[in-house]
Amino acid sequence: MNAIAVRMIGITSPAGGECVGIIPTVARLIATVVGMIPTVARLIAIVVGMIPTVARLIAIVVGMIPTVARLIATVVGMIATVARLIATVVGMIPTVARLITIDPS
User: Do residues 21 and 10 make contact, with C-beta atoms less than 8 angstroms apart?
Assistant: First the structure.
């Protein structure tokens, strides 16, 4: 490694050894990783704790499928009923028209 570049990035020791200066950096990195272990453990515990809730949520959604299917069937049935109602009203128009045009005299 180029000695000037090594000095520029600050990993030389005063004695001139190129690798000695990196030891504190590696030690800090190891300390940071070790310090993260409780946080990662808590995160894993939270995710594991969420599994029953997610399972219940999936069960609720799966349980809703028949209800949604019945709702769709009801809406489709209502469309047919409304179509018959419209046809009935349209069919009544000539009768109502004749009724209106009857001469009362």
Answer: yes
Residues 6+ positions from 3 with CB-CB distance below 8 Å:
12, 18
Q: For the segment 41-79, what is each residue's pLDDT rounded down to a tens digit?
A: 999 999 999 999 999 999 999 999 999 999 999 999 999
Report the C-alpha gap between 79 and 85 in whole angstroms: 10
Query: Is-contact 42 30, C-beta < 8 A?
Result: no
Closest CA to 84 of 72, 96, 92: 92
The answer to whether the CB of 18 falls within 8 A of the CB of 12 is: yes
Q: What's the rounded Cα separation, in Å, for the pair 36 and 69?
A: 48
> At 10, phi and psi to the nearest 5?
75, 35
Q: CB of 3 within 8 A of CB of 11?
A: no
Q: Strands (DSSP E) along 1-105, which ranges?
A: none
> Which pLDDT score is estimated for 89?
93
